[in-house]
Amino acid sequence: MPRICGIDLDKNEARLVLLDEHFEIIPTAITRLVLADTKSQTEVRSFQTAIQKFFDDNAIEIVGIRERLSKGRMKGGTITFKLEGLIQSCRQQAVLISPATIRKATSAANIDFTELPIAKHQHEAYGAAYCLLGMTGNGSLVLQSDTPAIKRTR
Fold first, then answer.
1. CA-CA distances (angstroms) from residue 29 to 17, 57, 76, 95, 148?
2. How many domains does the chain have?
3. Regarding beta strands 32-34 and 13-20, do their DSSP bridges make them parallel or antiparallel, or are they unpaired?
4. H or E element that contains 144
5. Contacts of 72 (CB under 8 A, 6+ apart)
6. What is the mean pLDDT of the chain?
7. What residues contact 64, with CB distance under 8 A and at least 6 apart?
8. Contact 149, 28 (CB under 8 A)
C-alpha cells in the first residue's frame, strides 16, 4: 500500500503527516523532527539519519514538501532550506508543492482541519500530503515535470 509523507518546514523542524492511498491519516509517534544545533555536523547528520529511518520504518515512497518562498516578505528561513536539502538527499522521491496549490486543493475538498486527528502544527504537512496524493493518482506517481505548481526533485 503506497504511503505518502507530507512535510512542513518551520524554523529548525520538519512537521510530518502520513497518508495512505485512501487519504487516511496513519498515526505515528513522531510528528516532528528537530535539528537542534544547525551548525553541528554531528547534529545535521543525525537529523538526516533520523528522517531516513522515519521514512524507512513507515514504508514511505513519496515525500511532499510544502515549498517556501526564497524571497519576499513571506520567505522561508535559511535553516528550512538546509532541512529541505537533507530530506531531498534521502532515497525517497521528494516533490516540492507550492502553498497556493495546497490551499487550492484543500479548499476544493472542504477540509475542516479541526476535525482531523492531528495536532495544529501538522495542518500544513497534512495539506502537502493530501495535495500530493491527489496529484499522484492514489500512489502511483503521474506528475508532469513541467507542472508549475510542483517541482520534482528526482
1. 11, 12, 27, 24, 34
2. 1
3. antiparallel
4. none
5. none
6. 85
7. 4, 5, 6, 7, 94, 95, 97, 128, 129, 131, 132, 133
8. no
DSSP assignment string, 5-65: EEEEEETTEEEEEEEETTS-EE--S--EEE-S-TT-HHHHHHHHHHHHHHHHHTT--EEEE
* Residue 65, domain extent: 3-152
Instruction: For residue 75, give the CATH number of its domain.
Output: 3.30.420.10
Is 87:62 a contact under the CB 8 Å cutoff?
A: no
Q: Is residue 8 pLDDT above 50, yes or no?
A: yes
Cell 504537512 belongs to: 125
**pLDDT (mean) for 70-80:** 74
Per-residue pLDDT tens for 124-144?
Answer: 999 999 999 887 664 444 444
Q: Are 23 and 116 within 8 A, CB to CB?
A: no
Contact between residue 60 and residue 5 where contact means Cβ atoms under 8 Å apart? yes
**Per residue in 91-107, is it b (16+ CB within 10 Å) or e — as a string?**
ebbbbbbbbebbeebbe
Residue 26 clears pLDDT 90, i.e. is over it: yes
